[in-house]
Input
Amino acid sequence: MVNFQPFHGVVTMISDFAIEQNGEGEGCYTLMSVTNSNGDLVNFVVSPTTYFVDHAMVAVGDWVTGYYDANTPVPFIYPPQYRALVMVKDSAYQNVKVDYFNSQLESSDGQLRLNISPSTPILLTNGQAFTRNPANRNLIVSYGPTTRSIPAQTTPYKIIVWC
Output
């Protein structure tokens, strides 16, 4: 199971990131530097498989949340460098939660429970329909208002299943 960990901040730099010495794959990987409100800096390696929510184009100055797998080994360098699995550009119109949701559609941290409506789109990362039950899976959930209960409950705008 992926242990999604978020890091939220402003993009301060985007540059090419070479992964092969022969130049093959140039331009396919980027290094995105993100600084949070405490001044902490993280570099995200963004690959062709990194999922950008709503296919948002990210630029320097944008506020983003990058999700990485906390169970994956990383180089012991400063600033920390993580392989970005999911990137979310901040929006005033929606919230996004990336997490494992159990059989009750409750997030692993117990903070959010989903109430899926018949009109909630449930998709794969490639945009195709997911026809199974999304419970007990890693999900990328876009949502708006929530209840003030614990866990907060919401009817999602969209669910992306992370297979």
User: Anything to note?
Assistant: The chain has no helices and 13 strands. The domain at 95-162 is CATH 2.40.50 (OB fold (Dihydrolipoamide Acetyltransferase, E2P)).
